[in-house]
Amino acid sequence: MDKYLIRNTLPTDHQRVISVMPDWWDGRDLRSMLPKVFFVHFCSNSFVVEASDQLIGFLVGFMSQTDENVGYIHFAGVHPQFRKEGIGRKLYNQFFKQCELKNRTIIRACTSPVNKLSITFHQRMGFIIEAGDGEIDGIPVTSNYLEINNPKVLFRREI
Ligand SMILES: CC(C)(COP(=O)(O)OP(=O)(O)OC[C@H]1O[C@@H](n2cnc3c(N)ncnc32)[C@H](O)[C@@H]1OP(=O)(O)O)[C@@H](O)C(=O)NCCC(=O)NCCS
């Protein structure tokens, strides 16, 4: 693991991240949910992992402005060829550390019910799925969390 460098994001990382997202998300195009402003004003809570300058992982997170106990992970991804090596865990642990420093004891994140890999990953990372207002494939979902009629699986972890 230590062969990989983890550092805070820079504005110049936006283009690199955007260019790999469709591939890393199996062709799903989620790029519009990650505008450059996240790479300008959220850098102290966002990270990239690199191996010899190659981008192999990223996490974009922030401290909730609404709930002073909450840190929120907006997006995280790992290069398909570097998965299951602990890089996702490393990125999440880095964010947890940042939350501890800021006295945030609750971490939240969400994913689409179609993203079974993300659901498994979050459960392995100690998140519980919050009760919602519906169920898809047996998984509790919340219908209108980020958009009307766009069900999301909501995760919560205490640190
Ligand atoms: C989800 C994702 C970030 C995980 O990254 P990763 O580096 O492969 O994860 P790690 O190697 O750190 O694994 C962490 C834990 O999740 C588990 N896990 C990871 N991928 C898994 C898989 N495909 N199936 C089962 N468990 C898996 C690992 O076994 C590990 O648990 P353990 O330590 O208890 O064994 C990566 O698969 C990815 O980028 N997916 C596409 C983008 C995406 O869906 N992001 C989700 C958040 S927006």
What's the arrangement of secondary structure elements?
Blueprint: E1 5-8, H1 13-24, H2 37-41, E2 47-51, E3 54-63, E4 70-78, H3 87-101, E5 106-111, H4 116-124, E6 128-129, E7 134-136, E8 139-141, E9 153-158
Parallel strand pairs: 4-5
Antiparallel strand pairs: 1-2, 2-3, 3-4, 5-9, 6-9, 7-8
The structure holds coenzyme A.
The site of coenzyme A has 20 residues, from strand 4, helix 3 and helix 4.
Give the CATH level 1 class of the largest domain. Alpha Beta
Give the N-to-C terminal Cα separation.
23 Å
Tell me, what's the shape?
Answer: globular
**Rg (CA only):** 15 Å
Small molecules bound in the structure, each named once: coenzyme A
Q: Helical element count? A: 4
Strand content: 25-35%
The CATH homologous superfamily name of the largest domain equals Gcn5-related N-acetyltransferase (GNAT)
Query: Sheet bearing the most strands, described?
Result: 7 strands, mixed
Oligomer: single chain
Main sheet strand line-up: 1-2-3-4-5-9-6
In CATH, the topology of the largest domain is named Aminopeptidase
Mean pLDDT: 97
| Overall tally of domains | 2
Using DSSP, what is the number of strands? Answer: 9
Low-confidence stretches: none
Which H/E pattern describes the elements?
A: EHHEEEHEHEEEE
Helix content class: 25-40%
CATH architecture of the largest domain: 3-Layer(aba) Sandwich
> What structural category arises from helix and sheet content?
alpha+beta
Give a summary of the structure in a few sentences.
The chain has 159 residues and is an alpha+beta fold. The chain has helices at residues 13-24, 37-41, 87-101, 116-124, and strands at 5-8, 47-51, 54-63, 70-78, 106-111, 128-129, 134-136, 139-141, 153-158.
